[in-house]
Specification:
This protein is of the alpha+beta class. The chain contains five helices and eleven strands; from the N terminus they run H-E-E-E-H-E-E-E-H-E-E-E-H-E-H-E. The chain is globular.
Length: 290
Amino acid sequence: MFLQATGVALSTRPQAKVDGCGIFRAPETDSFPPPHLARLIPHRSGRTDMRTEHPLDNPIWSALTTRQAHFAETFNQARRFPLDVTSLGGFDEPSRERYESLAALQSAGGPTGLFLTDRTSLPPGWRIVDEAPLLQMVREARQEAVPVTVPVGTPGWIELTEQDVPEMVELAGITKPGPFGKRTRELGTYIGIRRAGKLVAMAGERLRVPGYSEISAVCTHPEQLGQGFAAGLTTALIGMIVSRGEVPFLHVRATNRRALELYRRLGFAGRSLFQYVSACKPGGQTQPAS
């Protein structure tokens, strides 16, 4: 999921409208990486070979081959999560053969969300439903957080269960934090805040790789913005992850400057820049991503 913090507006960058797996054409004014990210990324290899030793260099593949391998749908050289969990998938490195393997996994319909270091690796004929530059941010133990004030009277969080899934899916549909399905909650711990009995904010864990857990689906109902919900939920998840001896990380749309600033204040630092691409095989189904 691409995190949307409480009170943090998503970018108003122009986007082409598409239907299903229609061709997406990014606005000519886009640049990758966005210029304002230079100070946030200490290093970026620029390699197209994704077969690296660090699990965060290719986090989807790392998750599907290690801690979340039990979720994996596999065909030859590609893996993906079940669509009702999330639309994410990947491979160890981009190649025509690996995209063909991924195409075979799309027989059930729906595009696959990929984290690419080189958008041009997409073979001719593949159709892009959505794309966005994503900054990967990590909160190492040595990184100090700037105190974030949560308003007095902010309600406490609760752990979300199977009974909360309909409201979780509804909230994700309103706020658009990224791919979210009926089984996304199975990926990790999800917590939320209720007001007058209604779920108004949530956050949880998605990708899990050796030594790291991703914070994801941070979202707040538009009518409840500006109350510190996202900061409070993210802080709670940081505490849970660190208590297990793991390092928190997340992915955020690189054009969302206010969100980037909030996560920096919470102790996260930019590590890598990906291009999120949700794509269909040639002639693929028009079912949207989960």
